[in-house]
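Hey,
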Amino acid sequence: MDNIIDMVLALKNVSIFQNLPDHVLADIAEITKVGSIDKGTTFIKKGDLGEEMYIIKSGVAQIHDGEHVITNISENQIVGELAILAPVQRTADVTALEDMTVFIINRDYFSDLLAEEFEIVSGVMVSLVDTIIQNNNIIKEFKTSRTDP
């Protein structure tokens, strides 16, 4: 990213941040790192203790549990969002299906920002509810597929 303005514009396209005012997005941009992930790299490993959330800027990643594919994620989607709220173990593996550019937000920095900018909380809560709903749907589909003859 060339500057904070570019980062703010990019963050506006991310579901958990889309309703935040620019000054809050600028604060988030200040704590966000840009990273590159090579195709084939498993950058989140099930069971590891998570410390950061990833926002896909470009590329595609697969969320999977061993050989079982859960879903693919791409531009402006997030993964690892639980890790920015609490030190929890990762629940699945995430592997880059192509070269990727990601935004990385660290829990410690994000926690400090949450304490200052309460507006962020509502966006995170909506995202977590969406994640829970998606996970429940995946569980239902899995149970149905195991009971069908």
